[in-house]
Amino acid sequence: MKRPILMALGLLTFSIATAQAADIEFWYGNTGNVEEAIQKQCADFNSAQSDHQITCVGQGSYEVGMQKAIAAYRAKRHPVLIQFFDAGTLDIMLSDAVVPVEDILPEVDWDGYIAGARSYYETSAGKLFAQPYNSSTLLFYTNKTQLEEAGVTETPETWEEIIGAARKLKESGHACPFVTDGDTWRVLEQFSARHALPIASKHNGYDGLDAEYAFNTTFAAKHLSNLVEWRKEGLVRLATDTRAGDYTAAFNAGECAMMEQSSGSYAAAKEAFGETYELTAAMAPMYEGHERHNTFVGGASIYVMKGHDEAEIEAAKAFLDFLRQPEQQMFFTAATGYVPVTNDALDAITASGEADSPKYLTAKIGVESMNQPGTPDTRGIRLGFYVQFREIFMEETQKAWAGDQTMQIALDNAASRGNELLRRFQQTYRNVQLP
């Protein structure tokens, strides 16, 4: 009698183990060296254990990934894990398609995440909705070699110093002293955050869906007008003004001497400069007389989508646990320039003896930037249809860059059109409680 019982117990154990194993998909939107790092982590996870198998599927961009995931969810063919970018935060929170990561993994010390990486993806009450992953912030890059050739021996820290350096570069014959693409994330969101300026009322939407845009009335409007005038003077160039037609490529090739760009761009710039130029990276510049505050986290986080069985959720939890390991964050930082997101990963970098190594430069500077003093207006952006608003902002400001309207009119138009989006979003979710 004992043998059949033992066999039955053995079969039961096997069935439980089998039930807990799962093959799942993770959809992401990155390309280039970031995609290579993601695929490496996926392969390493599969090699590190035999309970689960993950297939990581690139979608080409954040926007495409977001659209495909929502369509797949409606068709019940969605992945277990999906990477969503910062601009889509409120849309995905109210979609009813995801489960807050704190509910999935209640045992995790979520307070161990650095404040700047956590606040963007948490509810108004402080619950983390997604696990921060490829987290970046805005940094200021210079071609130190070219600046020194123009007589600039100290890295500029303020906009006034940048323009002073740009004039010296221009006088020395440099055609592209400072370059930008005028992107919403860089020239509006990150600028407003570190200068403690509201983008919208209700603390950028955290306090209610009835928020209204306010950026056209703040110092951000003056900064954007300055950029237009500096371009006319030949001190600032747009991506379209460069030979490369791409402002990051123009900087990496030595065509332009200064730029502000994501910390995630550091690895590519360092590789491109090689032994030809010396690269510097620092916190994004301030205007003189303004107190520095935290920059926003950029990049994306990972959400757990609803509608999956227990085994698939267990696989998702295992993968999220794997990515959270300090050594995995250290690898990702070194490979991409994205910053680590937990305090224990920062401690591990310090303990490694390589904290001052170029491969961890963005970790030091980026975290310092995101950990500057915060205000209720620097937690993040919690505004509906924000992806569409970014398109509107770019459309209107491009007209100002082209001289078809003043920058102030462009910003007023963008705010007005943006408010129409907010009212549509508010009507769509009129019976939904803001998380």
UniProtKB/TrEMBL annotation:
A Pfam family the protein falls into: SBP_bac_8
Keywords: Signal, Transport
Subcellular location: Periplasm
GO cellular component terms listed in the entry, alphabetical order: periplasmic space
Family statement: Belongs to the bacterial solute-binding protein 1 family.
Subunit structure as annotated in this protein's UniProt entry: The complex is composed of two ATP-binding proteins (UgpC), two transmembrane proteins (UgpA and UgpE) and a solute-binding protein (UgpB).
Name of protein: sn-glycerol-3-phosphate-binding periplasmic protein UgpB
Organism encoding this protein: Paracoccus alkanivorans
